[in-house]
Amino acid sequence: xxxxxxxxxxxxxxxxxxxxxxxxxxxxxxxxxxxxxxxxxxxxxxxxxxxxxxxxxxxxxxxxxxxxxxxxxxxxxxxxxxxxxxxxxxxxxxxxxxxxxxxxxxxxxxxxxxxxxxxxxxxxxxxxxxxxxxxxxxxxxxxxxxxxxxxxxxxxxxxxxxxxxxxxxxxxxxxxxxxxxxxxxxxxxxxxxxxxxxxxxxxxxxxxxxxxxxxxxxxxxxxxxxxxxxxxxxxxxxxxxxxxxxxxxxxxxxxxxxxxxxxxxxxxxxxxxxxxxxxxxxxxxxxxxxxxxxxxxxxxxxxxxxxxxxxxxxxxxxxxxxxxx
Length: 325
What we know:
Elements: H1 2-25, H2 32-42, E1 47-51, E2 56-59, H3 60-76, E3 84-88, H4 93-105, E4 108-111, H5 115-118, E5 125-129, H6 133-137, E6 146-148, E7 158-159, H7 160-166, E8 182-184, E9 189-191, H8 192-206, E10 213-217, H9 223-235, E11 239-241, H10 249-262, E12 267-270, H11 272-277, E13 291-295, E14 308-310, E15 313-318
Parallel strand pairs: 1-11, 3-4, 3-5, 4-8, 5-6, 6-7, 10-11, 10-12, 12-13, 13-15
Antiparallel strand pairs: 1-2, 8-9, 14-15
Helix pairs in contact: 3-4, 3-7, 8-9
């Protein structure tokens, strides 16, 4: 019996080594679905997401489980490749689950910065905060909105928490290699592969490793926040920290500085508005901070302009520098 047990253990160890070798030698991901599935396989217990305001600390396994359940729910509601989910949420664990889950089911995503702009989104249905559910629910010819953050059972919405629980343990439908999704923001559309490529470029430029923690102080409703921010961390098998951006620029900057210190963030993604409101001196607890990215203009090019200094560390630029007057 002991011999059989040792043999089984050896086989298990060999299989684990083979899987790790396969993951290491696999071709780089070109779709969000491929990237997140790779992290589910090789980084299940690695910290993936921190949301300080919600006391969320999820591993890749915990994050991707929820994304898969969300994808299964979308599939049940008739979402399929080429169909669109509208999204109006602040940076949160629910928004990230929705973005990743939509990619897993192959659905397109269109984000709206304000509740008013949500009415201009043409889609099968939406995911919104409950306070915007009435606006989303009035959109003609769409599925009932997926609502986050409250409401009664009798409300004409699909409650996010109930959806997640209803599809707990379910998996996303398998995508063919030809299927991909698009991400539509208020700025421009971005193909699935382009977002993954931006994440890979950022991970390379910043030399992101598993030990890093990236504070993303840019809305995930913008390709900068999702592609250059979240997906770069996914590429590096590291953690994303999402400070609250609600309450205006000053509040967002204060929350960013606090998150940087409390979570010992090594990298920062922020726009010029937040950077201007950050404290001049580095807060206590930010000794690990070593750099990051900031958007300065249109396009996805990295490093075309001189880095911006924050607390004595360089933030590499993204985009084309504005033309001189």
